[in-house]
Amino acid sequence: MTDSRDTLALVLGARTTGSALNPRLGDHVCLPFDTDGERIAAVRAITLNGLREGRLVLLVTESDTPQQVRGHLAGPGDGTGEWFDAEAAEAGGRLTILPADESHFSRGRFDPDLALTCLAAFGRHAERLGASGVSVLVDASWRLRADPGLSLEVEARGNALFAGSWMALVCQYDRRRFSGEAFDQAAAVHPITPGEAELRFARTPGGLTLAGEVDGTNIAALASVLDTLVPVARALTIDATALGYLDAEGARLLARTAELRVNETVIVCSPAVARLLSLIRADDVDRLSVRPAGP
Amino acid sequence: MTGDRRAGDDTPSSREAGEPGSDGSRFAASFSRGRITAVRQAVSEQAAFRGLSGRALEDFVLAVNEIVTNAVVHGGGSGELLLWRQDGRVWCEVSDAGPGIPAAWIDRDRLPASFSGGGRGIWLIRRLCSQISFVTGPGGTGTIVRFAARSP
């Protein structure tokens, strides 16, 4: 990608809430890049957008040192004409830059629990400071130093713990360093990857809401979220009214969740999704009620 | 059901109904896992352009998505898709280079009792489209699945 295209991506992507460069709270995005220019442009855009939204921003670095990232961030601020000074933002507590060595590894060994604890602690910190939420950008190249299966599991657990809440989490994947298959697997665990089906979800007091689309490009993300419903020992409603597309595997996962649960599960959904559930015989599950959302 | 399988009969000269390219323009696309969404969206537009609408379109898109996903997950990770209109029907053909679909999946008329077991895609597409055929690719590798949209 050329520099001018990087700039264009900044200008166009930056302002659209819900884009990969300006993620909504609750989004968990897999953001691939092919060049370092593209990677750095995204670091800048996501940092500036997050701060502008009144969030705290956490950057987890791997390919660059924190000092190099400060250098990338220095420059004209977001349309204000002011010079953005990363160190000032850090001193003010609005920006934190942490090498993956400190957030994802203990004494050089990958520590799955540390990574998730670190994110949770950052969220509590933001809440105390009265921030509107947190934007976290992780250079996913740390996974190249960790066990592929274990590190992918951390991405999936991130869905269950954080997505749909106070955190926008973007994982930058280097297409040059991850094989096509490894990247596809990673993308499928992320509810959102640009150019692929986008799933948004939130845990609610009554259960879960699902919105967007589910297909083979984000199916593992749906699985990780539904898994959290299985042990909940009360009746739950999955409001899938805003789910525009669901594939057969997604329908099977919904039915399986209801089948594994002890209490009743209600799925409220479009007539098309209700029909799909009926075609795969989800109505055979005793503790599942499917209710087409009425107009 | 084995009656609609046309074992080995896939010669280019065949004038059988639903032969790709013998009438009008074809839509062709290559796909891999990351392209499932984009291919589905393109197929939805292309099928609508060729006259499908309403539930017939919805079912056709679901069927194509399942066959494409099956090729990605079980058929070697990628494949080719063709879509065309002939004899008043919209047809789709999906080919992959994988090990082939087990006959038990193609022919089964009952689903497993538990939803913990996988694989409802093939079962589903048999109920969403018509004229479906599963053909082993040239040289015994890969699978070619061809089907037509249901009449509205």
From TrEMBL, chain B:
Region feature (Disordered): 1-28
GO molecular function: protein serine/threonine kinase activity
Keyword line: Kinase, Serine/threonine-protein kinase, Transferase
SUPFAM superfamilies, A to Z: ATPase domain of HSP90 chaperone/DNA topoisomerase II/histidine kinase
Listed InterPro entries: Anti-sigma-factor_SerPK (IPR050267), HATPase_C_sf (IPR036890), HATPase_dom (IPR003594)
UniProt domain Histidine kinase/HSP90-like ATPase: residue ranges: 35-146
Pfam families: HATPase_c_2 (PF13581)
Protein name, entry field: Anti-sigma regulatory factor (Ser/Thr protein kinase)
Domain of life from the UniProt record: Bacteria
Organism expressing this protein natively: Nonomuraea soli
Bias-annotated ranges (Basic and acidic residues): 1-18
